[in-house]
Amino acid sequence: MDALTLLLLSVMTAATPLLLAALGELITEKSGVLNLGVEGMMIVGAVCAFAVSVSTGNAAAGIAAGAVAGAAMALIFGFLTLTMLANQVATGLALTIFGIGLSALIGKGYVGIAVAPLAKLHIPLLSDIPLLGPILFGQDALVYLSLLSVLAVYWFMKRTRAGLVLRAVGDSHEAAHAIGYSVIRIRYLAVLFGGAMAGLAGAYLSLAYTPLWAENMTAGRGWIALALVVFSTWRPGRLLAGAYLFGGITILQLHAQSAGWGVPSQIMSMLPYLATILVLVIISGDRAKIRLNAPACLGKVFHPAQ
Amino acid sequence: MIRLESKGEPSRLFSYLSPVLAMVLTVGTGALLFELMGKPAGPSLYAYFIQPFTTLYGASELGVKATPLILIGLGLSVGFRANVWNIGAEGQLTLGAIAGGALALAFYEVETPLLLPAMMIAGVLGGMAWAAIPAFLRVKFNANEILVSLMLTYVALLLLSYLVHGPLRDPDGFNFPESRLFHDSATMPTLISGTRLHWGAVLAVLAAGAIWLMLSRSMLGFQLKILGDAPRAARFAGYREPKLVWFSLLLSGGLAGLAGALEVSGTVGQLIPTISPGYGFTAIIVAFLGRLHPVGVVIGGLTMALTYIGGETAQIEIGLPAAVTGLFQGVLLFYLLACDVLINYRLRFGRRLAIG
Amino acid sequence: MNDNHNDPSTPLLELRGIRKAFPGVVANDDVSLSIKHSEIHALLGENGAGKSTLVKIIYGVLRPDQGDLLWQGKPVDLAGPSAARDLGIGMVFQHFSLFEALSVAENIELALPSKGEGGFDRAELPDRISEVSAQYGLPLDPRRTVLDLSVGERQRIEIVRCLLQDPKLLIMDEPTSVLTPQEVGRLFETLRRLASEGCAILYISHKLQEIRDLCETATILRGGKVVATCDPRQQSVQSLANMMIGETPLKPERPAGRVLEKSNRLEVRGLSLPAQKAFGTALKDISFSVRGGEVLGLAGVAGNGQPELMTALIGEVLTYPEAVRIDGQPVGRLGPRRRREAGACFVPEERNGHATAPDMPLADNGLLSADRRMGLTRGGWILSRARDRFAGEVIQRFSVKASGIGAAAKSLSGGNLQKFSVGREIAQNPGVLVINQPTWGVDAGSAAAIQEAILALAAEGAAVVVISQDLDELFAIADRIAVMSEGKLSRPKPIGEVTIEEIGLLMGGIQGEKTGATV
């Protein structure tokens, strides 16, 4: 494979966890719930995927475990914010603090173990086409899943009635309640989906991106995913573009470090974080656009009693 | 199915009871967790919560750890009241440590009583500068301060790492990523000899008093509370939101920076890659645990300090992983948030009557 | 459901002994009523009489604590709004249950059963909407986003969405509070036509004349109980009012011998302001002036720029210096605190969260707008005794029912909180008072007290601007009246020289011959 193909492949690899987690959060936020615990759900997903993968030797079981673990974390969040009406910002932060602690505890016995990276598809002939072959036909399953998810989320929101109901609940929970939709149940489902996707993103990190477990290995990717949702103005297509842009920046700084341009590696490592801030500034400055696209009920507590 | 029924008036009793209840539940969960990990719950809980108090040094360590937690928690609680979510106190602490530490290293050969106060001021300014970025970006570009301040935390930690690997590395330190040890004139004197408890603890108590006065008696504190409770009413009254956002972030950033400078001069004594074991994040819990009230923050700070010390003791005594601390902190906040529902609602169990 | 239950002698819907209590209040107590097929039935009562609770029970949003619902003679148990819809009950809410970010068609689709359950195909829905809206004279474009629509158009969405389900009973909750008199006329035509086609209508209102014009039967609620059932056409407005309020309604008395000052205390000149929110209303070249001792009424249907004008007058949004003058001083670029210092006080429409901070005690809410005028602070520090004394005075002088100055604003009833919000400003003895919807959602007793306080302030020489959707109110207290429509203001006219019809035409955006947008 030539250098360009490798570069593109690595960009896709870096973008995939961001894309998965951000898609989940997009659905959660569209239902009107702001879950700031993406980082926590992601890292618990990562460690559970890794642990199950190591102990069963089965990567698919590991991936499933990651998704389930992320959803379980989301369930805690859902119970506190939807049933117990807790503040969503505070609960999301608690979920992240808790998740980092829990993952370190679970992962204690797994530090320093390596697993075989997630298998890449190999379709004879097709995968051997120069440049396009490996990119289109030689990725691992989660990369395809992330891309399919973009389409699925787009289709779901635009074309299905369930997607319409989801958008309606995020736009006005009072109105949705008044015409008879179960706001809480719909939001639970959206929150669980968000958790499962964050768990998958974590699984991708610990099974494919860097196939090992290390404490704090998500390194802020959950937060970047949150910023990407704002950047996308809650649209899946723009989310895809945003995730790949960030994948590109991540790979760029890694290459710059190895190329030894004389810039200290720590300074280069700041790039994705600084880029996140830049992107937020550019998008948020257009207040009208944010207001038009943001779910009107985002972060608001709903109590159906009256 | 759990149903919530509004109480009409918030319950004062439960606003005090809820943190206590949350702590009891956390200890219970801890006991369960220890049993599940195959450690007997009794001795583990003893090691975690009681043993630290059996020696003067252990008890004084409570103050050492509580000092930064209280300082940061005070600043955050003011901002949280005004709906200004500074989540990047860890980064502001780091910048305070860098600013204070760099000053100590710059005047390495100079012996002067002015150095310590100058370091503290540098720390405050460093923290403020770091917090000014999210303040500016929120006021000017509407950028979410949660994400910006958090991203800046990663940047700050990388900056510190760069500095101790490069420009500020000890020239005689065998290439370890550490600065030189500070001289005496750059070291915060201790309050009780034989312990690490330093004068920063006094500063934290003074800060709590000042913040209490500001929140309960001044127009500025009143404006912050109105902005958080009813932003439209704040506009009606004519309070200027940008000014209040700036104030909240500069205050919390400055206090976090001060905590950072105190850590390097009082506790660590040099610049190393990791100054704080996550004080900036734990202080968020301190603020909530303390009901965003200065006196509560002092109590909350001492409580959370205990989880750090207990975690360390438990690590040594019974081989629990250090991560248990973060786990407990998260669980405590979960319970607190869940118990807080009792302030405004009554719980009803059973089938929901109207459709939900 | 076109089966043999359509026996016209059985009531379509019957309620027996309905009771519903919330913490601290019994909203419905032993309420019984029955609605016949094709009947237009009024549910009449003051704010807080329990009308909304009762219709929520009929629509399945709430469940009664006691009592039975009978639909065509059979007991039913409504598990939710969809169960009510399945029976053939449709509802048009007072505060519309619409999704602003979604299109008209999407809004309607959400309230219909899905295709598998007998609803419409997504692709066909827009055509069906156009069909029904043409049939009943309710013009609607299915593709537009609700955000872009006027209040009248939004109401049409709700009606069309009910009609698409062939309802047997249509509930209308205070439908005319947002309409011009002309729009009200058209709505009544639609409703009569529906009734003639066999659909019963439950019409909720506190407007007596409307009920006499439209309804055949009226059930009157007071304090959660049914106090009378009658044929409103046989009643006078006065007798209906007596039943509704339990006493003769209070009419504010204009203090005699008011002297208008010569100079303008409040002057607005060429005030223009682009829309502040997406789909807000832009203010276009608004000019008016008010003399000391005078009350100027600004009429208009909701959504024609009243809140925008209010924020521009308060100073929440700044314009240019000469746009607003208080006692001659240009204040257009000054914020609310400086305008208060210049002598103006304000009461915005929303009392919960705008005029007051809901979770804060009344003492603090007094401080909110009175700190400078009443000297409640010194050097940035709060004088707590002065603060408490001021709040206590407001409570006492305006008979605000509250547990004390420590009561949270949200714990007060709507009428009492409004009395506090208005009283807080009047107690500051301002030279200029601007007040938006002074008696919206307020019980009759409080409304009269508020109107009297406004007139008394004017009698002392203050210039008062009252923005209101309630024409009766404006005709009762204003000296001159002007109409806001699409961000423009008509030329103010003395109250004796205009008729309600003329004002109604202006509210609908039809400019009279001599009424330019500016003076």
Automatic annotation (TrEMBL), chain A:
One Gene Ontology cellular component: plasma membrane
Predominant location: membrane
Topological category with respect to the lipid bilayer: Multi-pass membrane protein
GO molecular function, one term: transmembrane transporter activity
Keywords: Cell membrane, Membrane, Transmembrane, Transmembrane helix
Subcellular location as annotated: Cell membrane
The keyword Membrane appears for this protein: yes
Highest rank taxon of the organism: Bacteria
Transmembrane segments: 6-26, 33-53, 59-80, 92-116, 136-157, 188-207, 213-232, 239-256, 262-283
PANTHER family named among the record's database cross-references: ABC TRANSPORTER PERMEASE PROTEIN, SUGAR ABC TRANSPORTER INTEGRAL MEMBRANE PROTEIN-RELATED
Name of the molecule in the record: ABC transporter permease
Lineage: Bacteria, Pseudomonadati, Pseudomonadota, Alphaproteobacteria, Rhodospirillales
TrEMBL record, chain B:
tRNA-binding recorded as keyword: no
GO molecular function, one term: transmembrane transporter activity
InterPro entries named among the record's database cross-references: ABC_transp_permease
Keywords assigned by UniProt, alphabetized: Cell membrane, Membrane, Transmembrane, Transmembrane helix
GO cellular component: a single term: plasma membrane
Subcellular location: Cell membrane
Stretches that traverse the bilayer: 12-34, 62-80, 92-108, 114-137, 146-164, 197-215, 244-262, 268-288, 295-311, 323-343
Pfam families assigned to the protein according to its UniProt record, in alphabetical order: BPD_transp_2
The UniProt record lists the keyword Manganese: no
Membrane topology (UniProt): Multi-pass membrane protein
Name of the featured protein: ABC transporter permease
Originating organism: Hwanghaeella grinnelliae
